[in-house]
Prior knowledge:
The structure is a single chain. The chain is an all-alpha fold and about 130 residues long. It has one domain (about 1-125). It is built from six helices and no strands. The chain has helices at about 1-15, 20-40, 45-55, 60-80, 85-100, 110-125. Helix 2 (about 20-40) packs across helix 6 (about 110-125) and helix 5 (about 85-100) runs antiparallel to helix 6 (about 110-125). The longest helix has 23 residues, at about 60-80. The radius of gyration is 15 Å and the shape is elongated.
Amino acid sequence: MGVLIGTIVGGLTAFFLSPKSGKENREEVLKKIQELKKQIEKMEIDKKVKEIYGEVTEDGKKVLLKAKKQLLIKVDDLQKKWEEFNYEKYLKMVEETIEEVKSETKGTAEKLIKLKELFVKDWNKVFGNK
């Protein structure tokens, strides 16, 4: 996990210290945020619920849909403050989202961790860190 986080932080550091102009960096960050949103939006609910819960349940679908909706709202807010965009902020948003939906599920902590990992995978797909 530490290696993964270090890789992501290193990549973002290189990105923000690149010789591109401010406008080019802004456009690149906004493009990446849009890609991240699309990755979350196109999620196949039944497939992901089965991956997390082992079977497709109404409870699982409800939690995943609510988490997805809440996270997309947070990513939209982040887009307005693109200068603050980084992995740590995204991870914090994911953790807050999981906390918000935790009371609405009968799922175990293990399943909520898998839900968190699902959203982190979306970050990794967009930023090339797998």
